[in-house]
Write a structure and sequence with these properties.
The chain is mostly helical and 240 residues long. The chain has helices at 3-18, 27-62, 109-117, 124-129, 143-153, 173-176, 184-197, 200-213, 215-239, and strands spanning 68-74, 80-86, 134-136, 169-171. A hairpin with a 5-residue loop joins β1 (68-74) and β2 (80-86).
Length: 240
């Protein structure tokens, strides 16, 4: 693990610790953010329903086991929650909370497609709707990743800034700035940077970048919405 990366993350913690007073976001900003989350999640789940149902069936038919994968993630103030994804690996061969190689043999055929297009992340709109996550925020690390980082930085969970104080996001700085060689510590650093600089303008910038990075998800939502609209029009014509 590169020592300079660990040093940069450690420096981030030192800066946070020196900022003894953190000015919280205004109540209006927090209200708007949550309202946007709920509206987007409802629309997203509606539009993505045909795509989700299709891939749920594909995953279930391709290999035995639940088509949904549930993983424990570390959320707001260290709260553990269950994060949902479409299953992309054979049952019983999960990665113990750590990232999986692109050509990992444990990946199913549909799983490779789902990961390449990020469509496997769509079920997390359920997490957004129930309040475990936000549309934009620090990407939630797994319990195993969090423990790993804590050990290598020699810090405990009581250290300032160790856990995010905002809801973890479906999309964050990590996703829109990701490269193939990004380490856990760099991902953690992006989360800390988001926490230190959060405002609605930053969320808007991340959202616009995400439209490009997650373009396949956007296309899936448009396709699902088109199918629903088409079905509704056919129903109206039939009724008349």
């Amino acid at each position: 693990m590169p020592s300079e990366t660990i040093a940069r993350v450690a420096e981030t913690f030192e800066v946070q610790e020196r900022r003894q007073i953190v000015v919280p976001a205004g109540a209006a900003e927090n209200f708007f953010k949550r309202a946007f989350d709920i509206c987007f999640a409802l629309i997203g789940l509606t539009f993505s329903a045909p795509v989700l149902l299709f891939f749920l069936a594909v995953v279930a038919l391709e290999s035995p086991g639940s088509p949904l994968y549930v993983q424990r993630r570390v959320g707001r103030n260290g709260r553990i929650f269950n994060m949902y994804k479409l299953r992309t690996m054979f049952t019983g061969t999960d990665s113990d909370g750590f990232k999986t190689a692109k050509e990992d043999r444990r990946l199913t055929v549909s799983g490779k497609l789902l990961r390449a297009t990020n469509i496997d992340e769509l079920p997390q709109l359920i997490n957004v709707l129930n309040g475990d996550m936000s549309l934009i925020g620090p990407r939630p690390l797994s319990v195993e990743e969090t423990d790993y980082i804590g050990r290598h930085l020699n810090i405990s969970d009581s250290y300032p800034g160790f856990y995010p104080t905002s809801r973890p996001g479906l999309v964050g700085l990590e996703q829109v700035n990701r490269n193939k060689e990004m380490t856990y510590f760099e991902r953690f650093s992006y989360n800390s940077r988001y926490e230190n600089n959060w405002n609605l303008l930053l969320d808007a910038q991340i959202f616009l970048k995400a439209l490009v990075v997650c373009r396949h998800v956007c296309l899936a939502l448009l396709a699902g919405g088109s199918l629903i609209a088409g079905a509704a029009l056919l129903s109206l014509q039939y009724l008349h």
